[in-house]
Amino acid sequence: MIKPIKNDNLYIIECVIFVLSMFLGFGNRYFMVVAFIIAIYVMLTRIDSIYFLAFTSSFTQVFKIDSSSITLFSFLPLIGIITLVFYGVRNNKYIKTKNFLLLFSFFLYLIIFGNINSSYISFFQFIIPFIYSFLLLSMIDINYEKVIFFFSVGVILSGLTSFFYSYIPGLEERMILSIVKENGIIFADRLSGLKMNPNHYSLDVNIALSCLLISLYWTTHKLRDLAYISILLFLGFSTLSRSFYAATFLTVVLFIFVAILKKSFFNWKFFFSFTTVMIIGGMFLKDQISTFLTRFNGADNDFTNGRTDLFAEYVRDIFSDAYYFLFGHGLFAMSAKDLGTHNFFLELLFTIGFFGTIIFLFLLRSTFFSFKYKLISYIPLIIFLFRGMAINLFLKDTLYILLIVIYSFMIDSLQNRNLIKDKL
After folding, report:
1. pTM attached to this predicted model
2. Burial, 333: exposed, middle or buried (Cβ in 10 Å; 0-12, 13-18, 19+)?
3. Which one of 74, 278, 340, 390 is least enclosed by Cβ atoms within 10 Å?
């Protein structure tokens, strides 16, 4: 029977059993099959399976039968679509006509101009999560706080687990470690969580951190919230990602700026909560910050890590032909160097062109950002776009999760009683 979440404890138990089965599956593939069966069960029996997806999105790169196979996470949105379609038919709930037309237009555009050729499997892996998102947000009312909670817990668990990967049988063979070199000498490891990429993992940390930190404006300051924020700061700084450091600095600046405008920064409880997090963070992050600063020393280092040259090459490719500018090179195309754009905005223009980008942005606007939000609500979105200047996001398998988390934060702030009369 399809049912919304009513018992948080049962939902948490299902997540715990899934994680334990997956961990055992690193050394024995039969347990990974059990984990997949549990995931299918959750997706088939709950219309609000977004909480489970938000939690498991931090484990996509290890949720596999073996290290060389496709991630099993890719199948879950398809199962979610089946569940939502049956729910919609039984309860006369359907996707909005405007959203359907935009989604169909985008789908048709990619079929004609996406140059997908033999990459049909990758194409459907890309488009299915968006179909799931539009069905989900059109048909049911989700608990926005729980989306952020499950996502944040998943990010934290993924990061903490990666510290002990050598103690979990089979996980070490799946790990892809990232290091920092100085003059050819390895002097530090970069935390990647279980995403195997420190930049993608640190983006998840940035989104979770910005949502939790900004929500201190209208939620009761509990010790649990401060603990989550402190742990996220530790994990994020351990990635040694320059983009994370810059985005975190921007988050804090926006946090203080809005707090001063709201005059809440001078409230002793608010000030105590903020300074406590900063002091705890400073105590535990001294080594990480010191290691990070060394990345700027040495003749072979620049702040963009050579990305400016890569950006220039993609800009030349985009404007090399009017057709490429208008319609793009193809959904899975890359430059001659066979490297990604490392820029969300260039990635859109290069792959789907100007017209495809416009359709995609209209699609996001009508689905995720159709309300008139307050200024404070946009901070996680600003952080997302800021990080997008130095990372590929368009084809990221969990892009829809990040968008739903940001959307959940914005709706939560819009509905909060303490902010209804607040101009910010």
Report:
1. 0.89
2. middle
3. 278
90 domain residue, yes or no: yes
DSSP string, 17-64: HHHHHHHHHTT-HHHHHHHHHHHHHHHHH-TTTHHHHHHHGGGTTT-S
Residue count of the chain? 424
Distance CA 147, CA 155 (A): 12
Predicted confidence band at 360 (pLDDT cuts at 50, 70, 90)?
Answer: very high
DSSP single-letter state for residue 182: E
- The 10 Å CB-count burial string (b at 16+, else e) for 19-38 is bebbbbbbeeeebbebbbeb
201 in a structural domain:
no
Phi-psi region of 298 (alpha: psi -120 to 50; beta: other; left: phi over 0): left
Phi then psi dihedrals of residue 190, to 5 deg: -105, 130
Q: Which residues of 275-296 are buried (b: 16+ CB within 10 A; e: fewer)?
A: eebeebbeeebeebeebbeebe
Residues sharing a CB contact under 8 Å with residue 237, sequence separation 6 or more, in sequence order:
244, 245, 248, 281, 285, 288, 289, 292
Considering only CA atoms, which of 371, 370, 373, 365 is closest in space to residue 424?
373
Domains held by the chain: number: 1
Quote the percentage of the chain above a pLDDT of 90: 38
pLDDT average, residue stretch 130-156: 89
In this structure, what token pair is assigned to residue 340?
Answer: 């990604």
Domain-embedded: residue 320? no
